[in-house]
Design brief:
2 domains, six-stranded antiparallel β-sheet, 198 residues, 16 strands, eight-stranded mixed β-sheet
């Protein structure tokens, strides 16, 4: 190495084992990631829940948020505290399967959690650690994308085409170690292919 030059090119390594890697089976071929509503320059962590369009080879990030403080319904209750680093975005609908709301804004200033401000009260109480999903409408009854895969590698969201590798099977998954939560709908849909330790 030439004198005076210092190379610092070590990539970040994610050493947290989220599942038994020996049980992981990947889907064939790369999938094109739909980056709509994802932030360019951000990273999707390993094991992000994904809906794979198996016929057309597209991958859609499944957007779920984990509630970190119990929410009590009321006309003036327009803030929901959720775990940091979610993929939530302004204008999305969030739902529980029974009730829902539209996200009006997101405050990321607190180091421990993000605050989703909703346009109208959610309509029901939400327990701490509950997982809300991205819904197709403000009523919150139907999940927009239900996971049938998980992201194999940490992936940077970039302009243009982003190709990703996906997992179709995994066992001994540790939910507490996952950066992105899976909804109950996701877990039901993945049953038999993905085994969560819970």
């Amino acid at each position: 190495m030439s004198a005076g030059f210092k190379y610092d090119l070590v990539p970040p390594v994610e050493q947290e084992e989220r599942y038994d890697v020996q049980t992981g089976i990947r889907r064939r071929g790369p999938y094109k990631l739909d980056t709509t509503n994802l932030t360019v320059g951000s990273f999707l962590p390993v094991f992000t829940p994904i809906y794979a369009d198996l016929k057309n080879k597209f991958a859609y990030a499944v957007i779920n948020v984990q509630v970190v403080e119990a929410y009590t319904a009321g006309d003036t209750a327009l803030s929901i505290k959720v775990a940091k680093n979610s993929l939530a975005y302004k204008g999305m609908f969030i739902g529980s399967g029974k009730k829902g709301a539209e996200v009006d804004s997101i405050d990321k200033s607190n180091k421990d959690y993000d605050v989703l401000t909703i346009k109208a009260a959610f309509g029901e109480n939400i327990a701490k650690d509950a997982v809300l999903f991205e819904a197709t409408a403000v009523g919150g009854t139907k999940q927009k994308y239900v996971a049938n895969s998980a992201l194999y590698n940490r992936t940077k969201v970039e302009d243009g085409i982003v190709l990703v590798s996906l997992l179709r099977t995994a066992a001994e998954i540790e939910p507490s170690k996952l950066v992105m939560p899976f909804s109950e709908n996701d877990k039901t849909n993945l049953k038999g292919w993905f085994e969560f330790n819970e």
